[in-house]
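Re-run with default settings, no changes from the original entry. Doing this only to confirm the output is reproducible before filing.
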Amino acid sequence: MTEPRTNDPQNTNDPQSTNTPQSTHRYEGPVFTDAVSHVQLAWNNETVTQNQRNDGGTVAPGYEALAELVTGLLGQLPQAGLAGPEREDTEAAAQEVLAEITRTDAPEEGRVRRALSGLRGALAPVATGVVAGTTVGAQEWALAAITSLTGAV
């Protein structure tokens, strides 16, 4: 019997062979072949709640405190105990405020006031307990949020 030669192109068992069949890789999750940023993934979850801070833009001068307040509210939103639709409405309203004060051009004062009114309006039914199933903790949180937003601009 002849021993296989090292570096033999015809020997598929030789790891240095140029004739080695391609390996097949099986991945059990997402695979990225290029640079990826600002991505949120949930894999093999039955339920998932994801939040993404979108405060990467530059805040217009004079609006830093408002940006910090609204970003803080967004961070507290998952623990506030709001039901799905109320949480979504509040998050959308908060994102509108942030979008306005991080625009590339100067924010329009009227738009900022309207966006803040929308955010307070999204929180009002929760703060007053009008929303069925609202917990006391969520009511107190929403009332405190409305109070802090009232003097923001």
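The radius of gyration is 27 Å. The helical segments are 64-76, 84-101, 109-127, 136-150.
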